[in-house]
Specification:
It comes from Methylobacterium persicinum. Its EC number is 2.1.1.130, 2.1.1.151. This is Precorrin-2/cobalt-factor-2 C20-methyltransferase. This protein is of the alpha/beta class and about 260 residues long. The protein folds into two domains: about 130 residues, Tetrapyrrole methylase, N-terminal domain (Cobalt-precorrin-4 Transmethylase, domain 1), CATH 3.40.1010; about 100 residues, Methyltransferase, Cobalt-precorrin-4 Transmethylase, Domain 2, CATH 3.30.950. Helices cover about 30% and strands about 20% of the residues. The protein contains seven helices and ten strands. It has a five-stranded parallel beta sheet with strand order 3-2-4-1-5, sandwiched between helices. A five-stranded mixed beta sheet has the order 6-7-10-8-9, with helices on both faces. α2 links the parallel β2 and β3. α3 packs across α4 and α6 crosses α7. The longest helix is centred in the middle third of the chain and has 23 residues. It starts with about 20 loop residues before the first strand and ends in a 7-residue tail after the last strand. Bound molecules: S-adenosylmethionine. The site of S-adenosylmethionine has 24 residues, from α5 and β10.
């Protein structure tokens, strides 16, 4: 049971919490709206408050995935990050500003939830996988009912579009944020069979250097905007520039047991 109103024609009575709304973390999948789950779509169609994160002055990526479904702006709330890439995530100003931003956002959502309105937070890929949703979930989960709807992850969409299985047999897969320092990337890449390197942006040259040093460059595939319009899949070895947008990652497929 998920606490949402039943579909038209359904007779089953769903139990609803008496006083408060439910906080939904909605996995939006990797970009192609056809990869939304049935449950995600149902919640998007019915929740009275729909929340998405965005850059100042820009539209949120997770929100864009819902274009085919959403047409009622009065239900929507955009939460604009105070910073994205302007400061290092460990800079004290960044930490303080983000904490205040999430505290304020949690307060605004608590007002809706406390008044009995369900709130759905749109989350790219899967909400519990490097999702901003998690910062609001942490602040609200002990006060309100929560339902997290898993989504197809970005990496799953990317290796599918690249046409490359990522792990075979006993292969160990390591997921790395490109923001890690070069020696850490190198150590982790040397110790794994397969890898996914996310959050590339301006870190692409460093990741390329680590892959080269680890002897993995020839296996590395660069995927930009996997499953979305403007998708690009190319062996990293022949990508001759260092440009990488937010929605990009590098895959290093495993080569394990294949009887
Ligand atoms: C903050 S993480 C969010 C991950 C997301 N929750 C998920 O389940 O995939 C953002 C990173 O995910 C990766 N990513 C997510 N979707 C992608 C896509 N469709 N194509 C390429 N990269 C993607 C990029 O590396 C991006 O920098």
């Amino acid at each position: 049971m998920d606490g949402l109103a039943p579909f038209e024609g359904e007779t089953e009575e769903l139990p609803r919490p008496a006083a408060t709304g439910t906080l939904y973390g909605v996995g939006m999948g990797p970009g192609d709206p056809d990869l939304l789950t049935v449950k995600a779509r149902r919640i998007l169609e019915r929740a009275p408050v729909l929340v998405h994160f965005c850059k100042q002055g820009k539209r949120g990526n997770a929100r864009g995935i819902a274009d085919a479904i959403l047409c009622d702006p009065s239900r929507e709330m955009a939460l604009a990050y105070p910073y994205t890439t302007e400061l290092h995530p460990e800079h004290p100003d960044y930490v303080a500003a983000l904490a205040a931003f999430y505290d304020d956002a949690a307060g605004r959502l608590a007002d809706h939830l406390g008044a009995g309105r369900d709130v759905a937070i749109l989350s790219e890929g899967d909400p519990f996988f490097y999702g901003s949703f998690m910062h609001l979930w942490r602040r609200l989960k002990d006060r309100f009912p929560v339902d997290v709807i898993p989504g197809v992850t970005g990496m799953s969409g990317c290796w599918t579009r690249a046409g490359t299985p990522i792990t075979w047999g006993d292969d160990v897969l390591t997921v790395l944020p490109a923001t890690l320092p070069l020696p850490v990337l190198l150590e982790r890449l040397r110790g794994t069979d397969a890898a996914v390197v996310m959050k590339l942006g301006r870190h692409l040259p460093k990741v390329r250097a680590a892959l080269t040093e680890a002897g993995l460059l020839a296996r590395a595939v660069y995927v930009e905007r996997g499953t979305m319009s403007g998708e690009r899949v190319i062996p990293l070895e022949i990508k001759d520039d260092d440009e990488a947008p937010y929605f990009s990652m590098i895959l290093v497929p495993g080569e394990g047991r294949r009887p």
